[in-house]
């Protein structure tokens, strides 16, 4: 998940939480008998938040319904963008390889992913591997998912992946670093009978 999306998520969730806590807390406080200030939206525990006069105040004005519809449309579009952005992870299509001549060359992202997959699957104890490159083409990052055999030690598999497959891919592509997020799973197998 990109840093911008994480920041937007934190801001949106923080603002929603703040509005809900302040709004709900103030309604609860007034409902429990706390005297609100004179400018507050309701006066006491038996008062409604919006009276019928407040709800009907602008209905006759020509700008009211277009404004309500436009605001609601913007809110819906922003909510849809935010929802889709949660699931969209941009896969890197090409990696910039430093050739030493100042020009550089482009390496297909899928090619580097397949090299990483074959390197990871050749490690002892790894049944399957999946790799996706993210980040920028000059600074790629790898998301690696390893499915381990029942006899594999997770720490050892992680060390082998880092020392062998990731280091080899980083060196062959001429990258200074290749940060990786690794998720480990175990192959489902039947319980072994001990006699």
The helix/strand class is: alpha+beta
- Please give the number of β-strands: 5
Shape: elongated
Q: What is the strand arrangement across the widest sheet?
A: 3-4-5
Tell me the helix content.
Answer: 40-55%
Name of the CATH architecture of the largest domain: 2-Layer Sandwich
The tally of domains stands at 3
What is the rounded distance between the termini?
48 Å
Helix and strand string, N-terminal first? HHHEEHEEHE
CATH superfamily of the largest domain: Cation efflux protein, cytoplasmic domain
Tally of helical segments: 5
CATH-defined topology of the largest domain? Alpha-Beta Plaits
- Taking all Cα atoms into account, the compactness measure Rg is 28 Å
Report strand %. Answer: 15-25%
Rounded average pLDDT: 82
* CATH class placement of the largest domain: Alpha Beta
Major sheet size, sense and barrel closure: 3 strands, mixed
Please characterize this protein's 3D structure.
The chain has 195 residues and is an alpha+beta fold. It has three domains: 57 residues, no CATH class; 30 residues; 93 residues, 2-Layer Sandwich (Alpha-Beta Plaits), CATH 3.30.70.1350. It contains five helices and five strands, in the order αααββαββαβ. The strands form two sheets. It has a three-stranded mixed sheet, covered by helices on one side. It has a two-stranded antiparallel ribbon with strand order 1-2. The model has no long low-confidence stretch (mean pLDDT 82).
Set down the secondary structure blueprint.
Blueprint: H1 3-31, H2 52-56, H3 64-87, E1 94-97, E2 105-108, H4 109-121, E3 126-136, E4 139-148, H5 154-172, E5 180-186
Parallel strand pairs: 4-5
Antiparallel strand pairs: 1-2, 3-4
Helix pairs in contact: 4-5
């Amino acid at each position: 998940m990109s840093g911008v999306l994480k920041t937007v998520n934190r801001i949106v969730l923080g603002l929603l939480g703040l509005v809900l806590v302040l709004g709900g807390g103030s309604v609860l406080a007034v409902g429990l008998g706390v005297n609100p200030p004179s400018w507050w939206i309701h006066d006491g525990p038996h008062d409604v938040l919006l009276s019928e006069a407040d709800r009907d105040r602008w209905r006759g004005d020509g700008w009211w319904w277009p404004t309500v519809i436009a605001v609601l449309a913007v809110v819906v579009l922003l909510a849809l963008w935010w929802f889709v952005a949660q699931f969209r992870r941009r896969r890197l299509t090409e990696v910039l390889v430093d050739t030493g001549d100042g020009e550089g060359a482009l390496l297909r992202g899928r090619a580097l992913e397949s090299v990483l997959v074959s390197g990871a699957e050749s490690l002892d104890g790894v049944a399957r591997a999946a790799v996706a490159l993210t980040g920028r083409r000059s600074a790629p990052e790898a998301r690696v998912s390893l499915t381990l055999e029942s006899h594999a030690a997770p720490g050892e598999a992680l060390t082998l992946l880092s020392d062998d497959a990731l280091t080899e891919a980083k060196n062959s592509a001429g990258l200074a670093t290749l940060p990786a997020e690794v998720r480990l799973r175990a192959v489902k197998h039947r319980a072994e009978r001990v006699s």
